[in-house]
Amino acid sequence: MLAAAQRLRRSTDFAAAIRGGRRAGRGAVVVHLALPPTPGSEAPSSPEPARAVGAEDSSAPTRAGFVVSKAVGPAVVRNRVRRRLRHLVRERLAALPPGSTLVVRALPAAAGASHARLGADLDAAVASARASRSRRSR
Questions:
Q1: For 98, how many CA atoms within 13 A lie in the half-sphere containing its CB?
Q2: Dihedral sign from CA coordinates of 117, 120, 122, 125
Q3: Are the CB atoms for 32 and 103 separated by under 8 Å?
Q4: Is the pTM of this model over 0.70?
Q5: Count of CB atoms within 10 A of residue 107's CB?
Q6: Which of 34, 87, 94, 112 is in the most buried spot, having the most CB atoms within 10 Å?
Q7: CB neighbour list of residue 137: distance below 8 Å, 6 or more residues apart
Q8: Is 31 helix (H, G, I), strand (E, B) or coil?
Q9: What CA dihedral angle connects 58, 61, 67 and 73, to 10 degrees?
Q10: C-alpha dist (Å) from residue 116 to 9, 51, 52, 56
Q11: Which pairing describes strands 22-26 and 63-68: parallel, antiparallel, or unpaired?
């Protein structure tokens, strides 16, 4: 189980991470990763999650939230997928910069995915979201 300080619970926190974070989808999951602003930047390009003033320092915890819709399956299946994702994310939170916000959205394919496949998809999606956008040309 994630500690209370590491969980997203308010819809404003989810919305800020989804609107302001980088999105990457792999296999059975889509992740939205909002990285903390760098110390040199004066005006962050993304809205910050709703927190107390001054909470953006280096001691701010990395937080995670999960979105598992009814499209994934009935309640038993959705809860199983959420538990698996929560377990996988808990092991990977330390690798993210302090103050990051991660939202993991399960796709319908997550219902039948194995634990190993969910882990591989999550790792690939987070790595893609952390990669710089300069490689992309449009």
A1: 8
A2: negative
A3: yes
A4: yes
A5: 19
A6: 34
A7: none
A8: strand
A9: 140
A10: 27, 34, 37, 34
A11: unpaired
C-alpha distances (whole Å) from 106 to each of 4, 27, 60, 103 are: 21, 10, 26, 10
The tokens for 124 are 């690939």
- Alpha helices, DSSP H, located in 1-138: 11-20, 75-92, 115-130
The C-alpha atoms of residue 47 and residue 15 are separated, in whole angstroms, by 9
> Could you tell me which of 137, 133, 116, 128 has the C-alpha nearest to residue 33?
128
pLDDT digits (tens, 9 = 90+) for 10-67: 999 899 989 988 999 999 999 999 988 766 554 445 555 554 444 444 578 899 999 9
Any idea which of 28-32, 84-88, 90-94, 119-123 has the lowest mean pLDDT? Answer: 90-94
The answer to whether the CB of 22 falls within 8 A of the CB of 129 is yes
